[in-house]
């Protein structure tokens, strides 16, 4: 039988099927951060259970950590306690933790690939919806709740219902100024935030093949914003090249053995998907979100839509309330919208390639008056690499703040946040009400678009910038 | 976990779609290391004014909805972040049943781990239930999990589907982990095979 990549991974991880119950799936890698794990450790302790395979776990601290004055204690006592509890839990259970001061520290979904901890064909989980990121390697990677975190620690398995499969085919080449982020937003704009519910998406086509590993991570990261359980990209030479020599990558003979397995993973020619979506990459303009859901997005050359332009009542209502919250008027040109704050970073766009592109746009510019711009590398490795390449100087000379790594303004748990009514251009993944601070207004964009907005003080079409 | 059987309760209405978990429980409350106490912060940014007083415009602050265990909401409820703090907050506030056309996957799974029954209905059924509540705020529905039946005074009742395994767990209040550990021998056997097939995963 011809199989999709998802079906191949599913079949090889099926532990047991019992009548009337969800099948048990084996978990190869379990990623952790401080926010969604403490109650799981508490549950284990109360039930007198142990972590079954400590080597399957890699943990970091990212959500609550300050991105400046890292040498000082965390000012927020509740956040401080949460990171302390994380350290205690990891020490007690013998887990590999990259704590705040560790040179490997950073955002979990940036750190894990840097060390080659995820390989093609694995099942990977984390108490974090953006676990989908690791689908870029051809691994089945998805977010779980804290009860499931506890379940995986205790049993190394999860009861799972098999998902449906969706093929998102992106044909042709992107224009020079569009990026993986724009593909991700354009797909969500097309299918909606519930478009992928119950599905695992496989991204394919020329435009996906041409993306770097960083770009594929950006794309798969936002599979969850399309409602999908996970995103997948077939592994290829770029994947193997990226992994080779990394700390947790296979070595010696085992590399050849692993490679042979990885090469067997791509979906078979003629495998059947439950649904297929097709986009033409050449049509994807640089995107900007205008509302409070990632599906409320449009090309930068467009205008804020009017509620009456939607034929569905739910969407009309959602548009009305989004415009009210965002303080926008229908039919305003996207390029006429001013910004107060620009954020480059997050597990979506906090990798070296993102800072290179943003630095290229930023070089020789100044941050517009009244605008605050912060660059938050996804990890210390990204930070140091950028510094070795002199990118930090470009940002600092232009008036940007150059910070330590963390989730930072993506979800504003660590003190970096918008105040009421402030408007951001953000390379993160969610523009929900209050996501970046109560009353804050978020516009999702690519790193190049964010950098251009910082210099201009409003959104600009990167294709005509400079 | 409390077993879930049959109950009659006020049904509260929130006619909003794509309610995300950032709204259900905003991030500033995710720093706690306990499972309890999140109900006080449920829908915080909508529920309270800047000065901390109750926002009288917010649906759930209507006195008629006080004590409701059933929440009737628009499409794609619980989208966004995987935070289980969302169902913890919902359960801690007092809801044990949600009725909507659709849920985000992770949120849907998380509900069952916390004794919450998320019922799926079609567009017409949801519209009828919403209309019934709007016309008669404070109305009580009966939810019978055993017989998979919801009944309402105006006759908008319906039978609902639910995965039998999940239904069984809700009815018994059983711990998932205990259930999985019954298969510990199969897990061990799988692992031995896994080590032979994928030795590079066990090299560290």
Folded structure, characterized:
The complex is a heterodimer of chains A (466) and B (204). Chain A is of the alpha/beta class and 466 residues long. In chain A, 32% of the residues lie in helices and 16% in strands. In chain A, helix 2 crosses helix 5, helix 13 packs across helix 15 and helix 13 packs parallel to helix 16. The termini of chain A are far apart. Chain B is of the alpha/beta class and 204 residues long. In chain B, 43% of the residues are buried. Helix content of chain B is 33%, strand content 15%. The model of chain B has no long low-confidence stretch (mean pLDDT 95). The longest helix of chain B has 14 residues. In chain B, a hairpin with a 6-residue loop joins strand 6 and strand 7.
On the 0 to 100 scale, the average pLDDT of chain A is 97
- Percent range for β-strand residues of chain A: 15-25%
Please state roughly what percent of the residues of chain B sit in beta strands, choosing from under 5%, 5-15%, 15-25%, 25-35%, 35-45% or over 45%.
Answer: 15-25%
Largest interface (CB < 8 Å): A-B, 73 and 58 residues
Uncertain regions of chain A: pLDDT < 50 for 5+ in a row? none
The main sheet of chain A comes to: 5 strands, parallel
Radius of gyration of chain B, taken over Cα atoms and rounded to an integer in Å: 20 Å
Q: If strands are numbered along the chain, what order do they take across the biggest sheet of chain A? A: 5-4-3-6-7
Number of helices of chain B: 8
Q: Sheet bearing the most strands of chain B, described?
A: 7 strands, mixed
Give a count of the beta strands of chain B, DSSP E runs of length 2 or more: 7
Write the layout of secondary structure elements.
The complex is a heterodimer of chains A (466) and B (204).
Chain A (H helix, E strand, L loop, with lengths): L4 H8 L1 E3 L7 E3 L2 E4 L5 H9 L10 E4 L16 H17 L2 E3 L9 H7 L8 E4 L13 E4 L2 H10 L1 E3 L4 E8 L8 H12 L7 E6 L1 H4 L3 H9 L8 E4 L3 H7 L9 H10 L12 E6 L6 E3 L7 E3 L13 H14 L14 E4 L1 H4 L2 H11 L9 E4 L4 H9 L2 H8 L2 E2 L20 E4 L14 E4 L2 H10 L10
Parallel strand pairs in A: 3-4, 3-6, 4-5, 6-7, 9-10, 9-12, 10-11, 15-16, 15-18, 16-17, 18-19
Antiparallel strand pairs in A: 1-2, 2-8, 13-14
Helix pairs in contact in A: 2-5, 6-8, 13-15, 13-16
Chain B lengths: L5 E9 L6 H4 L19 H4 L22 E4 L11 H9 L3 E4 L4 H8 L4 E4 L2 H13 L4 E5 L4 E3 L6 E2 L4 H9 L3 H6 L2 H14 L7
Parallel strand pairs in B: 1-2, 2-3, 3-4
Antiparallel strand pairs in B: 1-5, 5-6, 6-7
């Amino acid at each position: 039988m011809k199989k999709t990549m998802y079906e191949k991974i599913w079949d090889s991880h099926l532990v047991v099927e019992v009548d009337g119950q969800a099948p048990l799936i084996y978990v190869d890698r379990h990623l952790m951060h401080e926010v969604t794990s403490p109650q799981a450790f508490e549950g284990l302790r109360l039930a007198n259970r142990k972590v079954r395979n400590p080597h399957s776990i890699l943990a970091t601290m990212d959500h609550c950590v300050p991105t400046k004055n890292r040498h000082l204690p965390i000012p927020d006592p509740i956040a401080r306690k949460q990171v302390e509890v994380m350290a205690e839990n990891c020490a007690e259970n013998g887990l590999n933790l990259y704590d705040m001061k560790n040179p490997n520290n950073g955002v979990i979904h940036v750190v894990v690939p840097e060390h080659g901890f995820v390989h093609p064909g694995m099942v990977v989980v984390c108490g974090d919806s953006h676990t989908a990121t690791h689908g870029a390697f051809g691994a089945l990677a998805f977010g779980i709740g804290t009860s499931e975190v506890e379940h995986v620690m205790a049993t190394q398995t999860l009861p799972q219902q098999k998902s449906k499969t969706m093929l998102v085919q992106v044909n042709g080449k992107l224009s020079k100024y569009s990026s993986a982020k724009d593909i991700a937003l354009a797909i969500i704009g097309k299918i909606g935030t519930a478009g992928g519910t119950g599905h695992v998406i496989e991204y394919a086509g020329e435009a996906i093949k041409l993306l770097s590993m960083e770009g594929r991570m950006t794309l798969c990261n936002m599979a969850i914003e399309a409602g999908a359980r996970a995103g997948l990209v077939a592994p290829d030479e770029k994947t193997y090249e990226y992994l080779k020599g990394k700390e947790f990558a296979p070595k010696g003979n085992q590399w050849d053995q692993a490679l042979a397995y990885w090469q067997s993973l791509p979906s078979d020619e003629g495998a059947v998907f439950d649904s297929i979506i097709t986009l033409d990459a050449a049509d994807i303009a640089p995107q900007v979100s205008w509302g409070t859901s990632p599906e409320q997005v449009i090309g930068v050359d467009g205008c804020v839509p009017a509620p009456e332009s939607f034929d569905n009542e739910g969407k009309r209502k959602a548009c009305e309330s989004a415009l009210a919250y965002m303080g926008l008027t229908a039919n305003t040109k996207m390029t006429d919208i001013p910004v107060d704050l620009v954020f480059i970073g997050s597990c979506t766009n906090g990798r070296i390639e993102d800072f290179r592109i943003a630095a290229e746009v930023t070089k020789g510019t100044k941050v517009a008056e009244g605008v605050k711009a912060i660059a938050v590398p996804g990890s210390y490795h990204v930070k140091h690499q950028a510094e070795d390449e002199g990118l930090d100087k470009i940002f600092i000379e232009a008036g940007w703040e150059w910070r330590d790594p963390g989730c930072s303004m993506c979800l504003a748990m660590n003190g970096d946040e918008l105040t009421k009514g402030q408007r951001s251009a953000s390379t993160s993944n969610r523009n929900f009400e209050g996501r970046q601070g109560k009353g804050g207004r978020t516009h999702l964009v690519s790193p190049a678009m964010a950098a251009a907005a910082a210099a201009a003080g409003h959104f600009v079409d990167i294709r005509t910038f400079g | 976990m409390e077993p879930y059987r049959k109950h009659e309760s006020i049904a509260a209405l929130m006619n909003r779609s794509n309610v995300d978990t950032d709204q259900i429980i905003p991030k500033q409350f995710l720093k706690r290391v306990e499972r309890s106490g999140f109900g006080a912060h449920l829908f915080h940014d909508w529920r309270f004014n800047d000065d901390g007083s109750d926002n009288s415009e917010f649906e759930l602050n209507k006195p008629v909805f006080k004590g409701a265990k059933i929440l009737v909401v628009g499409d794609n409820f619980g989208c966004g972040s995987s935070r289980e703090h969302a169902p913890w907050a919902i359960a801690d506030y007092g809801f044990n049943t949600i009725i909507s056309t659709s849920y985000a996957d992770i949120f849907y799974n998380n509900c069952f781990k916390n004794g919450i029954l998320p019922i799926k209905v079609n567009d017409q059924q949801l519209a009828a239930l919403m209309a019934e509540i709007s016309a008669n705020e404070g109305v009580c529905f009966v939810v019978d999990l055993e017989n998979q039946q919801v009944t309402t005074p105006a006759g908008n009742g319906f039978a609902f589907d639910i995965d039998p395994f999940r239904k069984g767990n809700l009815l018994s209040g059983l711990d998932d982990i205990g259930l999985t550990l019954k298969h510990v021998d199969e897990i061990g056997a799988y692992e031995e095979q896994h080590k032979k097939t994928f030795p590079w995963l066990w090299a560290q």
